[in-house]
Amino acid sequence: MSTQSLITPLGDEVYEIDTQLAGHPGITAGYLIRSDRPCLVEPGTSGSAPTVRRALTELGIGPRDLATVVVTHIHLDHAGGVGDIARMYPQAEIVVHEKGARHLADPQRLMRSARMVYGDLLDTLFGELKPTEAARIRAVEETGVIDLGGGRRLQSHYSPGHAKHHIGLLDSLTGDLYVGDAAGVYIPETADVRPATPPPDFDLDTALASLEKFRALRPQRLLFAHYGPVEAVEDTLDRSAEELRIWVEAVRDARDQGLDLDHAVAAVQERTAGRYRAYGPDADPELAGKYEMLSGVRSNVAGIMHSLDKHA
C-alpha cells in the first residue's frame, strides 16, 4: 500500500492514518493534527510504527517536529507503538491517563498479561511495547489540556468503562471527539456499531456514564480508532449504548442460568443475529473476520462475565 493511500484528509489539518494492525487495512486508525504544535492521537501497535513514520513524513512532519503523542488508553492496538514513536520523535511529549502512565514507562507487567491472553499471536498482532522515559510522559486526570498551538487545544475527558485508563479528546477548533474504544467499534463499510467489552475493566454503568459524558460535550464528529470519522453523533452514541445493554442482558441471562462462557457466547450470537450487516449472510467474510480478530465475541463476553462476577 502506498503512503498516500494510508492518509485521508478530514479537514482543518486533521489527517486519518491507517496504522495497519497486523498488516490489515481499515481496522486501526491514528490521527495527525497538523497544527502549530503537531499532535499524533493513537500511534497504534509497535508493528505500526514504521507505517506511521512514513505517513508523518509524507505530511511534512520530521523527527523533531512532532510535539505530542496522545493515547486514549494503553491497550496494545492503541498504545503498543508509543515507545517506538517516542524514539523516532525525541521532542514529543507523551500524554496518557494517570492510571496508564506507569505501564508506558515500565511495560513488563502489561506485556506479561498480554502474552498470557494472546500467546504467540501477540507478536503477530501487536509486537512489543517498548518503555518510554518517564520524564517524557505527562499523566492527565479527570480532565487535561494538550496545547496544539495558535489557541487550538485538545481537552481530555476521563471516560472509563472500556478500560480504567481511558480518555476521550475534544478538539476546540473542530469539535472532533476522539472516542478511542469507549463508544465501541464502528465498521464503516456497514455503519455497524458493536461493543468493545474486554476483561478486566469493563463495567456497564461506568461505560454508559462515559457515553453520556461524550454526549454532553456536544461534539460535531466522532473519530473512532476502529474505524474512522462519524458525523451522526447522537444516533451513534445511542446505538453504542443500546448494543452494550443488549450484550450485557444476554450474558446476564446466560449466567443466571448457570451457563458457562461457551454457552454465553452462543446466547449473545443468537440475541444479536441480524443486528450487524458486517456479520450477515451476504457479508464479506474477510470483513467480519478482521473485526472478530480485533474485538471478538468471546473476548467481549468474557469481559462482561468478569464484570458480572465482580458485582455478584
UniProtKB/TrEMBL annotation:
InterPro entries with a match to the protein in the record = Metallo-B-lactamas, NDM-1-like, RibonucZ/Hydroxyglut_hydro, ST1585_MBL-fold
Q: Identify the CDD domains for this entry.
A: ST1585-like_MBL-fold
Q: Mind telling me which SUPFAM superfamilies this protein's record contains?
A: Metallo-hydrolase/oxidoreductase (SSF56281)
Q: Which domain of life is it from?
A: Bacteria
Gene3D superfamilies noted in UniProt: Ribonuclease Z/Hydroxyacylglutathione hydrolase-like (3.60.15.10)
Residues of the Metallo-beta-lactamase domain: 27-226
Q: In its UniProt entry, what is this protein called?
A: Beta-lactamase domain protein
